[in-house]
Specification:
The chain is an alpha/beta fold. The protein is built from eleven helices and seven strands. The strands form two sheets. A five-stranded mixed β-sheet has the order 1-2-4-3-5, sandwiched between helices. Helix 11 links the parallel strand 6 and strand 7. Helix 3 runs parallel beside helix 7 and helix 5 packs antiparallel against helix 6. The termini are far apart.
């Protein structure tokens, strides 16, 4: 009993030292009439990094407008100390050249799952970048053992930092006025605007090149880019997706997109969380 009490006390102590978003931002995440800028988001992530050894901030370069750009790695301290090794294993398995079946199974048993979740690249779809703040807090507060032991999360506060700050600043300027929901009269991604995700196959933009480089360096097993739509018919897209889908994608990847997406949908349904769409086709 005494051991159990000590373990519970240690767990409570660990969660107690994790700062809440509202203690740093002055607002709850998702609060009405408030959007955090990228600078505020990073200030919170820095407070998290100062409070626990289960998160490591990695500076990955500069954005188009010259902002320092960060990605947060979240896992156990032991896993974080071996990120380079686990990334190498993931790369070997992804390439597979020169591996026999026994070697592949050995590497798979040794490695960890690397998972990329980002705060969205369409800055007008504001939920993603705000969600990253809350996700980091809840993971570090609760520290679910199965996730922390087996997963290294690459959590991007945003993959469009310039756009996040521009959109939040424009909204704040107009909140409470008749222009509160007016669209921003300039592009949140220079030159390409809302088509910044279509730049992924061209890599013209600094942001596209940086995300590509980091994912090649880390070789994540899952890449989840968040998107948001209007309140109806849904709020988020989850796989499997509607056609047209690139014919260059390996059939196994498409199959596992379906597996992961169906698992997500089943969880949302079981917990009474509506608003997720699958096989959705935007017409027009």
């Amino acid at each position: 009993m005494r051991t159990l009490i000590l373990v519970m006390a240690a767990a409570l102590g660990a969660s107690a030292q994790i700062p809440t978003p509202e203690s740093i931002l002055g607002h709850k995440v998702g609060e009405d009439f408030y959007l955090a800028t990228y600078e505020e988001s990073i200030a919170y992530f820095q407070k998290l990094a100062a409070s626990t050894d289960r998160i490591k901030l990695v500076k990955i370069g500069k954005t188009t407008q010259g902002r320092d750009w960060w990605v947060a790695l979240i896992s156990t301290p032991a896993n974080l100390a071996k990120v380079a090794e686990y990334s190498k294993i993931s790369g070997q398995l992804a390439n597979a050249r020169g591996l026999n079946e026994a070697q592949a199974h050995a590497l798979a048993a040794t490695g960890k799952a690397l998972v990329h979740i980002d705060g969205g690249l369409h800055a007008s779809e504001v939920a993603g970048a705000q969600h990253s703040i809350q996700l980091a807090y809840e993971l570090l507060r609760d520290q679910p053992k199965e996730i922390f032991d087996n997963v290294i999360l690459m959590l991007w506060p945003s993959i469009n930092p310039d756009g996040q700050t521009m959109t939040a600043s424009w909204y704040r300027q107009n909140v409470g006025t008749s222009y509160e929901v007016s669209p921003m009269p300039w592009l949140y991604q220079e030159y390409v605007g809302h088509d910044n995700n279509r730049d992924s196959y061209m890599n013209n933009m600094i942001e596209s090149r940086t995300v590509t480089k980091i994912n090649l360096d880390f070789q994540p097993h899952i890449v989840y880019t968040q998107h948001q739509t209007a309140p109806f018919p849904g709020r988020i897209y989850i796989p499997p997706f509607a056609e047209p889908i690139s014919g260059n994608i390996h059939p196994l990847m498409l199959r596992w997109l379906g597996v992961i997406g169906t698992s997500m949908a089943a969880y949302l349904d079981a917990h009474g969380l509506p608003g997720a769409m699958q096989h959705f086709l935007i017409e027009g």
